[in-house]
Structures are given as structure tokens and as C-alpha cells.
Write a structure and sequence with these properties.
CATH superfamily: ACP-like
Strand content: under 5%
Distance between the termini: 11 Å
CATH class: Mainly Alpha
Largest sheet: none
Number of strands: 0
Number of domains: 1
Structural class: mainly alpha
CATH topology: Non-ribosomal Peptide Synthetase Peptidyl Carrier Protein, Chain A
Radius of gyration: 12 Å
Order of helices and strands: HHHH
């Protein structure tokens, strides 16, 4: 399976937010609730990642509960791709 770079995933995350008229800040330590990135947005991002990879990832992982920042999202998707 191919993998997506953190920059590519970050771009995709920005596209999800942009569709709602929101911007993704440059600081990866920004909390998701501060930018209005909700669970539905994460689901949209997950679908985009899977479509681009042409593979299913296990987004039901327990680690998802600890995702609170932009960096956490990027780390989480990195971990899923390497699993």
C-alpha cells in the first residue's frame, strides 16, 4: 500500500475545512475544537485518505479518542498507514 505524506494529509484536512469556509492554521498544535474540526469532518478526511490510498484503514482504533490537535490527526493517520 502506498502512503500519504503528512503534508498531503494536512492539505486534505485544509480542503475539508475550506469547504465550510474555515481555514486550517499553520500551527499543528492548534486544538481541533478551536478551528471547528468535528468528528464529521474527521470522517470526511478519513474517506478522502482511503480514496487516495485506494485502501481501507481501521479508523475505529482506540487511539482516535485521544486526537485533540492538528498534529494528533496527522500522527494518527501516519500510524494507521504503517499498521
Amino acid at each position: 500500500m502506498s502512503t500519504l505524506s503528512r503534508d498531503r494529509v494536512r492539505t486534505m484536512m485544509g480542503e475539508v475545512l475550506s469547504a465550510q469556509g474555515k481555514d486550517l492554521p499553520s500551527d499543528d498544535d492548534t486544538r481541533l475544537n478551536a478551528i471547528g474540526f468535528r468528528s464529521l469532518d474527521f470522517s470526511e478526511l478519513a474517506l478522502r485518505v482511503e480514496d487516495e490510498l485506494d485502501a481501507e484503514l481501521n479508523f475505529d482504533a482506540p487511539g482516535l479518542r485521544s486526537v485533540e490537535t492538528v498534529s494528533d490527526v496527522l500522527d494518527f493517520i501516519d500510524q494507521l498507514q504503517s499498521a
